[in-house]
C-alpha cells in the first residue's frame, strides 16, 4: 500500500475510534452513581423536587440513553460541550482558554525534554555498556520513577521558599500563570518550573528510545562504510547515524503526548497553572459532570489525532516502511 | 500402598518446589547488578510493609503529641522519630512503613485486575481470531485512546463516594477475603485499585494477544491439536503458559506505574481516604507546612521514588532475561 493510501485509510479509521471514545466518555459519566442535577444545584434548590425535575427535563435526563447520546453528540459535533454550572461559563470557551495554557506548557516541556534526551541518548549509545551508559540508564529510570507532583513541590520548596529565606527573594514563583505580555522574564519564570518537571519524565523515555535506536543504527553497514571512507567520527554520528536513528524516536515522542497530558493534570494543580488538566481536576472535584465529559472527550481527541499525525509523519520520514 | 503413593506425591511436590527455587536463583544470578540490588530493595520494602508492627513501636494513627509529649507536633527528625512527626504528632516513619502497605497492595491488586481482564481478553482475541479478535481489540483501542491518568481521574471522580463494590458485589467479596485489604472495602482505595486495573488492562491484552498469536504457530501447539485436545485446554494448558514471560515483565512495570498513579490520585484527594496512611496523602497534607516542616513531604516522596525505581530496574532486568526482543524503551507510560 502506498503511503498516501495508508494515510487515507488511517484517517478514515479515526472516525469509528472517535465515535467509540465519545460513547465511552458519555457512558462513564452518565452511569456515574451521583446525580448530575443534584450536584449542580445549590443544596436548597436540590431539596425542591420540582426544580430538580425541571432541570432533569431541560437536560433531557428522562429520555432513553441512546437519545441522550445522540443529542449530546450532535451538540459536540457543533463544538457545543454544554454549560458548566460550577464555573458559570460555556464549556467550549473554558476548554479553549485552558487548552492554550496547557499547549504552551507542553511545548516547553517538549523542548526541554528533547534538549536533554537526544544528546544523552547519543552519548549513552556511543559509550554503550560503559559506566557512562549505566549512569544515564539509572538516571533515565529515575526520571520515570519520580512522582512529578513531589518533584514540583520540592522545586517550590528549594527555589521559592528556601531561596527566599537564604537570599531574601525567591528564584521562581511558587505558582501561577503569566503571559508574554507580563514580560519575557516573568513569563519564563512562571512557565519553566512546571515545564521542567513535565520535561524530566518525557526526557527519560525519549532518551531510552534514542539510545536503543542509535545503538541499532551504529551497527549498520552504511555507518561502517562512512567510517571506512575516513569520514570524521563527529559527522558519522551527527549526519549518518543520528538522522536515521531519530525516525523511531519521533514515534515515541508522539506516544508521549499522553504522558504530557497525564502529567499536566497533577503538575498544573501543584503550580496553579490554569490549564486543561487543572480544569478537569476542578470539575471532577465539584462533580461538574457536563464539563468533565467535554474535557475528557477533548483530551482523548487530541491524543488520538496526535498519534495519527505522528504515525503519518513516521511513514513520510521513512519511506522504506510498507504497510500491508 | 496408599501410604507409598502419598509419599511419592509429597516427594514430587518437594522436587517441584525445589526445582522452582533453583530456577529462581538461576534467574536472579543472571540479572545485572542494578536489577539484583532492586530485587533486594523491593523485597525489603515488602517485608517492612508486611511486618510493619514489628518495625515501629507506634501505631500509624497514634498521636504522640497527646500520648507522649505535646512538643511532638511537627517535630524535626530525632533518633526516636527518625523522620520527624506531623501536625497531629504522628510519627512520619511509622506512617511511611504502613503507607507501603497501601502502595504495594494497590500496585499488586490493580495489576492483578489488569492481568485478569487483559490476559482473558488478549488470549481469546489472539486464539479465536476473526471478528472476535477485531471486536475485542477495537474496544481495547478505544480504552487506550484516553491518557491513562485522565481516564483514571475521571472514573474515580465519576464514582464519587460510592465504591465499585456497590456495583460489583462479587469483587467486593473477593477483596474482603484478603488480609489487610479486607478491612478497606468501604474506602475509596477499592475504586483506585479497580480503576487503575481497568485502565491498564488494554496494555496487558495487547502483549498477551501478540504472544498467543506467536505461540499458536509453534509445533507443539499443532501436536496438541492433533491429539484431539479441546481448544480451551490447548489455550490454557499449552499456549498461555508459554506466552506469559513478556506479560510478567510488563506487569512488573505496571506495578511501578500503578504505585505512581495511586500516589498521584491520593495526592489530589481522589484516591485513598483517611484513616489509611498513604504516601500521596502524606505529601499533600505536608505541603501546607513547607518550608518549616520539610520532612513531612520529603520522606514520602523519597519512598515513592525508591520503590518505583527499584520496580522499574527490576522489570528492566527481567526483560533482558525473558523478553529481549522488546528491550527498547523504559517501561510503559
From TrEMBL, chain A:
| Keyword annotations of the record | Cell membrane, Membrane, Transmembrane, Transmembrane helix, Transport
The annotated topology with respect to the bilayer is:
Multi-pass membrane protein
Question: For this UniProt entry, which segments traverse the membrane?
Answer: 12-31, 107-126, 138-163, 187-206, 245-271, 291-317
Q: Which GO terms describe its cellular component?
A: plasma membrane
Chain ranges of the ABC transmembrane type-1 domain:
99-314
One GO biological process term is:
transmembrane transport
PROSITE patterns attached here?
ABC_TM1
Tell where it localizes: Cell membrane
Q: Which Gene3D superfamilies would you find in this protein's record?
A: MetI-like
Q: What is its main location?
A: membrane
Task: Identify its protein family.
Answer: Belongs to the binding-protein-dependent transport system permease family.
* Entry protein name: Oligopeptide ABC transporter permease
From TrEMBL, chain B:
Please name the GO terms of the biological process aspect recorded for this protein, alphabetically.
transmembrane transport
Q: Which domain of life is it from?
A: Archaea
Claim: Transmembrane helix is one of the keywords in the record: yes
Question: What membrane topology is annotated for this entry?
Answer: Multi-pass membrane protein
UniProt-listed InterPro entries = BP-dependent_transpt_permease, MetI-like, MetI-like_sf
Assigned keywords, A-Z: Cell membrane, Membrane, Transmembrane, Transmembrane helix, Transport
Where does it localize?
A: Cell membrane
The record ties this protein, via Pfam families, to:
BPD_transp_1 (PF00528)
Q: Where are the transmembrane segments?
A: 37-55, 104-130, 142-161, 181-200, 293-315
Q: Where is the ABC transmembrane type-1 domain?
A: 100-315
Gene Ontology cellular component annotations, sorted alphabetically: plasma membrane
Query: PANTHER family given for it?
Result: D,D-DIPEPTIDE TRANSPORT SYSTEM PERMEASE PROTEIN DDPC-RELATED (PTHR43386:SF1), OLIGOPEPTIDE TRANSPORT SYSTEM PERMEASE PROTEIN APPC (PTHR43386)
Family statement: Belongs to the binding-protein-dependent transport system permease family.
Q: What is this protein called?
A: Binding-protein-dependent transport systems inner membrane component
Amino acid at each position: 500500500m502506498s503511503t498516501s493510501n495508508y494515510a487515507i485509510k488511517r484517517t478514515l479509521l479515526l472516525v469509528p475510534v472517535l465515535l467509540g471514545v465519545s460513547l465511552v466518555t458519555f457512558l462513564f459519566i452518565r452511569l456515574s452513581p451521583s446525580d448530575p442535577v443534584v450536584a449542580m444545584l445549590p443544596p436548597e434548590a436540590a431539596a425542591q423536587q420540582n426544580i430538580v425535575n425541571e432541570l432533569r427535563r431541560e437536560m433531557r435526563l428522562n429520555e432513553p440513553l441512546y437519545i441522550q447520546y445522540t443529542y449530546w453528540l450532535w451538540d459536540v459535533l457543533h463544538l457545543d460541550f454544554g454549560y458548566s454550572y460550577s464555573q458559570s461559563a460555556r464549556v467550549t470557551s473554558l476548554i479553549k482558554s485552558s487548552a492554550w495554557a496547557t499547549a504552551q506548557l507542553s511545548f516547553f516541556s517538549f523542548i526541554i525534554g528533547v534538549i536533554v534526551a537526544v544528546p544523552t541518548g547519543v552519548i549513552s549509545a556511543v559509550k554503550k555498556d560503559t559506566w557512562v551508559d549505566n549512569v544515564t540508564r539509572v538516571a533515565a529510570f529515575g526520571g520515570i520513577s519520580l512522582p512529578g507532583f513531589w518533584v514540583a513541590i520540592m522545586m517550590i520548596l528549594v527555589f521559592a521558599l528556601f531561596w527566599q529565606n537564604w537570599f531574601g527573594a525567591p528564584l521562581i514563583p511558587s505558582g501561577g500563570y503569566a503571559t508574554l505580555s507580563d514580560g519575557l522574564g516573568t513569563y519564563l519564570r512562571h512557565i519553566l518550573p512546571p515545564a521542567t518537571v513535565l520535561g524530566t519524565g518525557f526526557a527519560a523515555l525519549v532518551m531510552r528510545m534514542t539510545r536503543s535506536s542509535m545503538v541499532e543504527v551504529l551497527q549498520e553497514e552504511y555507518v561502517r562504510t562512512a567510517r571506512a571512507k575516513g569520514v570524521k567520527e563527529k559527522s558519522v554520528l551527527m549526519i549518518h547515524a543520528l538522522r536515521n536513528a531519530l525516525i523511531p524516536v519521533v514515534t515515541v515522542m508522539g506516544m508521549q503526548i499522553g504522558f504530557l497530558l497525564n502529567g499536566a493534570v497533577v503538575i498544573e494543580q501543584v503550580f496553579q497553572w490554569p490549564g486543561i488538566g487543572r480544569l478537569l481536576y476542578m470539575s471532577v472535584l465539584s462533580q461538574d459532570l457536563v464539563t468533565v465529559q467535554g474535557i475528557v472527550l477533548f483530551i482523548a481527541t487530541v491524543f488520538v489525532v496526535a498519534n495519527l499525525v505522528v504515525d503519518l509523519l513516521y511513514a513520510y520520514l521513512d519511506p522504506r516502511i510498507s504497510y500491508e | 500402598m496408599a501410604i507409598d503413593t502419598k509419599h511419592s506425591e509429597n516427594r514430587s511436590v518437594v522436587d517441584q518446589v525445589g526445582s522452582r527455587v533453583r530456577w529462581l536463583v538461576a534467574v536472579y544470578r543472571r540479572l545485572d547488578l542494578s536489577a539484583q540490588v532492586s530485587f533486594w530493595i523491593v523485597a525489603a520494602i515488602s517485608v517492612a510493609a508486611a511486618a510493619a508492627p514489628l518495625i515501629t513501636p507506634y501505631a500509624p494513627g497514634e498521636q504522640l503529641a497527646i500520648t507522649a509529649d505535646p512538643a511532638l507536633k511537627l517535630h524535626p527528625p530525632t533518633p526516636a522519630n527518625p523522620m520527624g512527626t506531623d501536625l497531629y504528632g504522628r510519627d512520619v516513619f511509622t506512617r511511611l512503613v504502613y503507607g507501603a502497605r497501601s502502595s504495594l497492595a494497590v500496585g499488586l491488586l490493580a495489576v492483578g485486575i489488569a492481568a485478569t481482564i487483559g490476559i482473558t481478553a488478549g488470549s481469546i482475541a489472539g486464539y479465536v481470531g476473526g471478528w472476535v479478535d477485531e471486536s475485542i481489540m477495537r474496544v481495547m483501542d478505544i480504552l487506550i485512546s484516553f491518557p491513562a491518568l485522565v481516564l483514571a481521574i475521571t472514573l474515580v471522580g465519576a464514582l464519587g463516594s460510592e465504591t465499585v463494590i456497590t456495583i460489583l458485589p462479587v469483587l467486593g467479596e473477593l477483596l474482603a477475603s484478603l488480609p489487610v485489604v479486607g478491612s478497606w472495602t468501604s474506602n475509596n482505595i477499592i475504586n483506585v485499585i479497580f480503576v487503575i486495573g481497568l485502565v491498564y488492562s488494554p496494555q496487558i491484552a495487547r502483549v498477551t494477544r501478540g504472544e498467543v498469536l506467536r505461540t499458536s504457530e509453534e509445533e507443539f501447539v499443532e501436536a496438541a491439536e492433533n491429539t484431539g485436545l479441546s481448544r480451551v485446554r490447548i489455550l490454557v494448558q499449552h499456549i498461555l503458559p508459554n506466552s506469559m514471560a513478556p506479560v510478567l515483565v510488563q506487569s512488573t512495570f505496571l506495578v511501578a506505574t500503578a504505585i505512581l498513579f495511586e500516589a498521584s490520585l491520593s495526592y489530589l484527594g481522589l484516591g485513598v481516604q483517611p484513616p489509611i496512611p498513604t504516601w500521596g496523602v502524606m505529601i499533600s497534607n505536608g505541603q501546607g507546612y513547607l518550608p518549616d516542616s520539610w520532612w513531612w513531604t520529603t520522606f514520602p516522596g523519597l519512598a515513592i521514588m525508591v520503590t518505583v525505581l527499584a520496580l522499574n530496574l527490576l522489570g528492566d532486568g527481567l526483560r533482558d532475561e525473558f523478553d529481549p526482543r522488546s528491550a527498547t524503551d523504559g517501561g510503559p507510560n
